[in-house]
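TA notes. Do not distribute before section.
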Amino acid sequence: MIENRLVYLLRDFAIIAISILVALIFVKTGVVSSVLQLGQGTIIISGVLAGIFFISAFTAAPAAVILVELMKVYPPVLVAFLAGSGALFGDLIIFSFVRDALTKDIFYIAQKLGLGDARTKFQNGHLRFVLVVIGAFIVASPFPDEVGLALMGLSQMKKINFIPVSFALNFIGILTFGLVVRNLM
């Protein structure tokens, strides 16, 4: 069981590294420009899809490039709203279906770090609040959402509370990220 978890973690890190490499290749070869030209006039589709892909470690790098390019052409608030909607959709999928596997990864890492059985430590009410806050910072950051969503899942947050929180965090995070990167270019 533990060996399988390590294999999954190594596989995930390899996929992330490949995703970053693909994003760099997309930028250098002009693929991003071509994709944006194909989607001209479809800001809704482009923004929502970029938001969906922005939340995952496996697709964040190419989506970030597309979001920055969209913000060069369209109002950043509009792009962030559309991408935030897409990110909410992606977060709901992850929150609903994948959080258990990520939670197992977190427990595995905690065990390997000598922190003991982390499951019993998550029963504390104060720790649940801390998990939500840390998870929220991760979701709002330009980093992929999976770990933040797993932390929020560990806190046993209800979906009805998760939906507005996820949208607001993604909207603010994408808008801030896009504006910072756009102004640096």
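Switch to the second chain here.
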Amino acid sequence: MTDYKFDPKILKNHFDNKIRELCKSCKRYGTKATCPPHIESVEYYRELLPRYSHGILFVEKFKSNSLTNWKELGERSSLKIHNQLTGVRDELFAHGKLSIVFGAGSCKLCKECAFPCRFPDKSIVPIEGTGLNVVDFVKEVADIDVSFPVSKYFYRVGVVLYD
């Protein structure tokens, strides 16, 4: 996994209500406590996230040779980056830093989500659920072209913001 440091102020250039609207096409829409429509508004995140002092984008690239391979890799990689992000959050907290983390895609921590979330200290909001255009953001910060539909490669991303 590669990490890229960035100034969170650039985030304000990447919010788009249309991105959040795409969440409605997800099979998990409305079923996760950490996803739309159960999280704060795009406007809330547009105001909050650029106020942090430091940002780190984590990106991991996976080779996919089939749709089955992509789904299998996706499940494993999602939990892997989830654990890495919460580990970074815990480490920052232990050093007295305020932090927030976001993953890509819905939280996969529990097989069945509960309302309210049973593990708010371990759960993660999907960065695209905030309305952030992840494709444009990753291109600006890491100069990586993320494309859909997934073909040869797919990427797992995570974002850590802290003061």
